[in-house]
């Protein structure tokens, strides 16, 4: 039985722990702050694909992960008896102008070729969700069937429950044994940067909110760079800001107020919905702009899984698979652009 110690109980750490435990490894998860204490304890949970054009290894990896998600989360939910809040509910995007409409139409064929029938990208001339999706200045809407939603806190709790059913708990501290996987978010990026003598990533602040409004059967919306996500618990998440400069990393402020005002103006169904939660925190962003996966350079038996930034939940099923392959079996299927060296510029 292989021993694995995973540091960090965010979405990457918990997902890798689950994949390793499923394969029979003896796993321990260590996080002094407990599960979901960092960026994975946020509110938004938009599992949305990149646009189907200029295809690259990052988009392919994300595409495969989004297709894996339904089975991944169904197994997690069944194992622990907790609903992770996952649903492949699709997404509606409002086309803002004629240029955006031309691009959207080009992407129909690109999606057909690249997504190979696993999902569709449509341009519609009628609002597919009247009363929910805003009207379009260009008279057109994009609907894709690949996007899904995930309630971050429900998903984290579901993974913790599934691991507990396998005899794995999240510990505040533990004596390490076996291979060590470092999935420690922003703090981990700082530690890795210090160890390697070069910055490999940093934290980018995000702010989001949750409103009390039951739209759980409706698709997520993307309009004017705003994500509007109906969650399984009868709430709607709004997000998020992306701040390189900030005064306090974990405090909400006027930027979130402006985001809420914008959401209420764009989606009239939310006009009177009360705000029931606000969140602010730092999300780990690697210099390569892709998740950072693989061996820790110069440290045998140590591995990195970091840099999920805004797409960590969508990438998690595939990240868990390739990291379990590497740690347990020595099979390296990690794209070159995801390696630590990619953020070092090597």
Secondary-structure map with pairings?
Layout: E1 3-7, H1 11-22, E2 26-30, E3 46-47, H2 57-80, E4 91-94, H3 98-115, E5 121-124, E6 141-144, E7 148-149, H4 152-165, E8 170-171, E9 179-182, H5 185-196, E10 201-212, E11 220-223, E12 226-230, E13 235-239, H6 254-266, E14 275-286, E15 292-295, E16 302-306, H7 312-329, H8 340-344
Helix pairs in contact: 1-4, 1-7, 2-4, 2-7
What is the spatial order of strands in the main beta sheet?
5-6-4-11-12-13-10-14
> Tally the helices: what do you get?
8
Number of domains: 1
Report the uncertain regions: none
CATH architecture: 3-Layer(bba) Sandwich
What percent of the residues sit in helical stretches (DSSP H or I)? 25-40%
Quick summary:
With 346 residues, the chain is an alpha/beta fold. It has helices at residues 11-22, 57-80, 98-115, 152-165, 185-196, 254-266, 312-329, 340-344; strands spanning 3-7, 26-30, 46-47, 91-94, 121-124, 141-144, 148-149, 170-171, 179-182, 201-212, 220-223, 226-230, 235-239, 275-286, 292-295, 302-306.
Task: Please describe what this structure looks like.
It is a single chain. By secondary structure, the protein is of the alpha/beta class. The protein has a single domain (3-90, 146-344), classed as FAD/NAD(P)-binding domain. It contains 8 helices and 16 strands. It has an 8-stranded mixed beta sheet, with helices on both faces. It has a 6-stranded mixed beta sheet with strand order 8-2-1-9-16-15, sandwiched between helices. Strands 3-7 form a two-stranded antiparallel ribbon. Strand 1, helix 1 and strand 2 form a beta-alpha-beta unit. The radius of gyration is 20 Å and the shape is globular. The model has no long low-confidence stretch (mean pLDDT 96).
């Amino acid at each position: 039985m292989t021993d694995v110690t995973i540091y960090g109980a965010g979405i990457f750490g918990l997902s890798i722990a689950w994949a390793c435990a499923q394969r029979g490894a003896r796993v321990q998860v260590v996080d002094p702050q407990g599960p979901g204490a960092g960026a994975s304890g946020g509110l938004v949970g938009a599992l949305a694909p990149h646009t189907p054009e200029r295809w690259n290894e990052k988009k392919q990896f994300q595409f495969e992960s989004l297709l894996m998600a339904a089975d991944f989360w169904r197994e997690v939910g069944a194992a622990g008896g907790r609903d992770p809040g996952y649903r492949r509910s699709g997404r509606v995007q409002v086309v803002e102008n004629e240029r955006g409409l031309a691009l959207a139409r080009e992407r129909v064929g690109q999606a057909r070729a690249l997504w190979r029938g696993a999902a569709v990208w449509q341009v519609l001339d009628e609002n597919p969700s009247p009363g929910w999706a805003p009207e379009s200045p260009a008279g057109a809407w994009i609907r894709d069937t690949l996007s899904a939603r995930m309630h971050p806190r429900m998903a984290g709790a579901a993974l913790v429950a599934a691991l507990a059913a396998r005899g794995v708990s999240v510990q505040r501290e533990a004596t390490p044994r076996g291979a060590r996987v470092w999935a420690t978010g922003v703090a981990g990026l700082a530690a890795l940067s210090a160890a390697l003598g070069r910055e490999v990533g940093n934290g980018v602040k995000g702010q989001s909110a949750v409103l009390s409004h039951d739209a759980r059967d409706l698709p997520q919306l993307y309009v004017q760079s705003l994500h509007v996500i109906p969650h399984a618990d009868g709430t709607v998440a709004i997000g998020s800001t992306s701040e390189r400069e900030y005064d306090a990393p974990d405090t909400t402020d006027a930027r979130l107020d402006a985001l809420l005002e914008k959401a209420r103006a764009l989606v009239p169904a939310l006009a009177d919905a009360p705000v029931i939660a606000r969140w602010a925190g730092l999300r780990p962003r690697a210099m390569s702009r892709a998740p950072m996966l693989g061996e820790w350079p110069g440290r045998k038996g140590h591995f990195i899984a970091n840099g999920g930034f805004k797409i960590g939940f969508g990438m998690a099923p595939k990240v868990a698979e390739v990291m379990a392959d590497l740690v347990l079996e020595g099979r390296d299927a990690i794209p070159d652009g995801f390696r630590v060296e990619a953020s070092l510029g090597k």
